[in-house]
Amino acid sequence: MQARIITVANQKGGVGKTTTAVSMAAELAGRFRVLLIDLDPQANATSSLGLADPERTHSTYDVLLDEVTLDQIVVPTAIDGLDLAPADRALAGAQIDLVEMSAREHRLERAIRPLLIPNDSEAVPAYDLVFIDTPPSLGLLTLNALCASDHVLVPVQSEYLALEGLGQLVETLELVRSSLNQRLGLIGILLTMVDARTNLSEQVVTEVRRHFPAATFRAAIPRSVRLSEAPSFGRPIKLYDPSSRGARAYGDLANELLARLGMSEANAPSRRGAAEPVTLKPSDSAEAPTLPPGTTVDGSAGATLGGQINSGAPA
Q1: What is the DSSP letter of 232?
Q2: CA-CA-CA-CA torsion for 98, 102, 166, 43, nearest 10 degrees?
Q3: What is the pTM (predicted TM-score) of this model?
Q4: Using CA atoms in the order 128, 189, 136, 262, what is the torsion angle rounded to 10 degrees?
Q5: Which CATH number is associated with domain 4-308?
Q6: Quick check: 186 pLDDT over 60?
């Protein structure tokens, strides 16, 4: 039995990757054993859990360079059932350090394996779920996360410019799936920072749901001051304000994610009955419009979003 490994990725910054990774890990820790891996040099997931430590000697950077094992850097958090593999600014140099290394795309996968697939067949994996927070790029750090993962969760801010890089990301996911990690699948697209007060936000939500009905989560994350405040207090929204709209939205997302994974407390970390992830593939029809630069998530249902969304002004 193995854990399910989920990378939260989007090469655009400011779309809610870290908030989503931290919030989902915290939300599900009450029901599963969860590990959050911070693979972003900004280390925002680490600080969002109140675990930033300038005196820390090892981080995920050292794991990628094989200087320490992953279990040696894992630290417990204030939430029962949630552990963290922290990051620090040294990760910024990993893009250069990894270039000349063998199997550079699989360094993280190799580091995670001992925790999730024990040598002893009778042993229980250390975690049921692993979330990986990635930097806002499609470089070697994100590639390592994708090669180690079963699924990708893509947060998309409900603004026009946030959609423009979605085609490049989908193309990258398909390339990784076809050449480096055949088990990789898109578990869903998450609309974030939804502001019902603006026409543009509503138009983006409508178009994304229309063109990607199977991939887009029903749950959507509202623009929320409380969600923005929580990291400054070093607490996930579940602890900072559990009754807020943001906390409730991530609770709904957690339930929907588990349904897509086919997971429950009774079968964790079993894969039995797991739903198939949404397949990343080009359109089946040569005449079908596609999301630039020419790939789609939902096959023939995909379409170019840019021309479909009017430049709406705030309502």
Answers
A1: G
A2: -40
A3: 0.84
A4: 10
A5: 3.40.50.300
A6: yes
